[in-house]
Amino acid sequence: MKKKVVSVLLAAAMTTTLVAGCGSTGAADTAADTSAEETTESTEDTEADAADAEETANAGATYKVAVVKQMDHASLDEIANAVEEELDAIAAKNGVTIEYETYSGQGDQSTLTQIGTQAVADGVDAIIPIATLAAQVMATCAEDTQTPVVYAAISDPEAAELTGIDYVTGTSDALNTTFIMDMMLAQNPDVQKVGLLYSQSEANSTKPIADAKAYLDEKGIAYEEKTANTNDEVITAASALIADDVDAVFTPTDNVIMAAELAIYENLAEAGIPHYTGADSFVRNGAFATCGVNYTDLGHQTADLAYDAMTKGMDDLEDYYLMDGGIITVNTETAAALGTDYSVFNDMGEVVEVTTTEE
After folding, report:
1. pLDDT tens for residues 198-243?
2. Which pLDDT score, from 0 to 100, does residue 41 have?
3. Which of 199, 203, 356, 359 is the most exposed place for a label (fewest CB within 10 A)?
4. β-strand pairing of 289-292 with 327-331
């Protein structure tokens, strides 16, 4: 059984590693440091030799992968494109062939089940589902065969019941809701009422919405909830929040709302209401700002993890890997429409400016 451990960085378990070191201080540590360096160099040499041997053993092998998006929209498309890009890079680097097909479940559980059942029947070596419902369905489809399921962008794997399963792992884009609320108040300290726009069918939204409510309650700020499960319902809900005269709107990494962002961002901006969201892809589709995970990086890391699952097995992999976030993304066109000065964000972290695209 894999341990229920959350790793902050995708480290040794992955083909692509991130290495951080700490230095000692003081002359008395010199001898110990030298010995430690020699031991580290020896260990690194051994690990490098083992990696070379593994690459040689895998050279010429062919692997089949099914990439399954829950639906089509900017966030999931960005991740899928990054997964494909990284699978191609892995194949070239390791002298292997990786055949992959990318599917969309169109947000429908029956369609996802058909895709998963067919992928397992086709004998794929791994399935990479993107978003919570897709991951849950793929885990069920792969139960009998124990085909590795390596998911991408699950905000709360434990709440989604995707932990403690031998053949399931993946990457989490858990949201720092408190920081986004801090951004909201930094930009406008006079916020009196916040709109919470999300879908009750999205497991990704449950914890961030609860966290947002707790934050706002503590600050004595009122909030108005509107939920939706279709594009038309999202448009109606956004219009209701505008009518309720909210000062800002918050949406977590909610796939249903993301799919409709292009249909609501202009109305929110014209009403002077900044939309704070859970992912940069929302912002590229017109939302005002976010602080979160880079989904291209997440897609690359998920593909690396899937390759490890196919070539090394699942025994040494954790239940899931938490991606680092921390990048503030602002849509400059939306900021201009709002008449909003976002320079205050410069004191809160790295700010990336984007404009609206329909991809």
Report:
1. 999 888 899 999 999 999 999 999 999 999 999 999 999 999 999 9
2. 53
3. 359
4. antiparallel
How many CB atoms are located within 10 Å of the residue 214 CB?
13
Whether the Cβ atoms of residue 70 and residue 129 lie closer than 8 Å to each other: yes
232 and 343 part of one domain: yes
Say how far apart CA 104 and CA 111 lie, in whole Å. Answer: 8
Asked if residue 232 is part of any domain, the answer here is yes
CA distances from 80 to 86, 305, 308 (A): 10, 14, 18
* Full domain range(s) for residue 91: 6-15+59-173+294-322
Neighbouring C-beta atoms of residue 142, cutoff 10 Å: 23
pLDDT at 94: 96
Which pTM was predicted? 0.72
CATH number at residue 156: 3.40.50.2300
Question: 239 and 195 share a domain?
Answer: yes
Cα–Cα distance for residue pair 48/12, rounded to 1 Å:
12
Same domain for 106 and 213, yes or no, is no
**pLDDT on residue 35:** 46
271 and 133 within one domain: no
Q: Is 264 helix (H, G, I), strand (E, B) or coil?
A: helix
Cross-strand bridge partners of residue 97: 62
Instruction: Give the alpha-carbon dihedral of 116, 119, 120, 121, to 10 degrees.
Output: 120
More confident residue, 161 or 43: 161
Query: Could you say which DSSP state residue 127 is in?
Result: E
Q: Residue 11 has what pLDDT?
A: 39
